[in-house]
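Q: Sequence in, structure out?
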Amino acid sequence: MPTVPVPKASVIATPPSISAASITPVSINPLSIAPLSITPATIATPMPKEAAEEAPWSHTGIVTRAAIALGANIGEPAAQIARGVQALMQLPHTRVIASSGLYQSAAVGYTAQPDFFNAVALIDTQMSAPDLLAALLEIERHQGRVRDFPNAPRTLDLDLLVYGDTQCELPGLTIPHPRMLQRAFVLVPLHEIAAQLQIPEHGQVRDLLYFVDVNSVQRCGDIVDAHLLAPVVVC
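A: Exactly. Output:
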């Protein structure tokens, strides 16, 4: 099994013609980068608390553990992912349990774009899966997400990976996420914070690393200071 270092948890349009040579790649040396230190005062709140409380989201009354993937590759990816984590903290009937570090990898699918930065957050929530997905899409919208074409560059992408032991296929929502098992940029950060998490019908995260190239991703820092990840419940 590959060795993955586990640090301490702290209408579709035609793609535009973009020359890969015209894009300056993001270069980060993981040995020299200092952990990202982002305090509450420096993070613009993507969704005000009042907006979250007024949103038409219901809750089940049952706490379910879910995993959320975060990704970005334009604008200020690291800060946008940090804002995404903070927005998760403000969701009703939800608390953030843990967040992985920040990982960098080459874009897949449409490759003529900058590298992506990714992370995974683990949450406990009483929101239903469809309502949680709706909330994630709203967070993306607040962060300026535009869906120009499949696999386009993005300011923030949030994917619902796992929702307890739920398995479902609904319009716009499949759980577990149908492509997570082929994505090292999902499984490696998820392994950092939840190696023993059971993926329905597939096994534990630590065993799924066999099927991806763990060397295709590189840990390049932390997302936020640990105090931002203290359990927060917005009811």
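The first strand starts at residue 59 and ends at 72.
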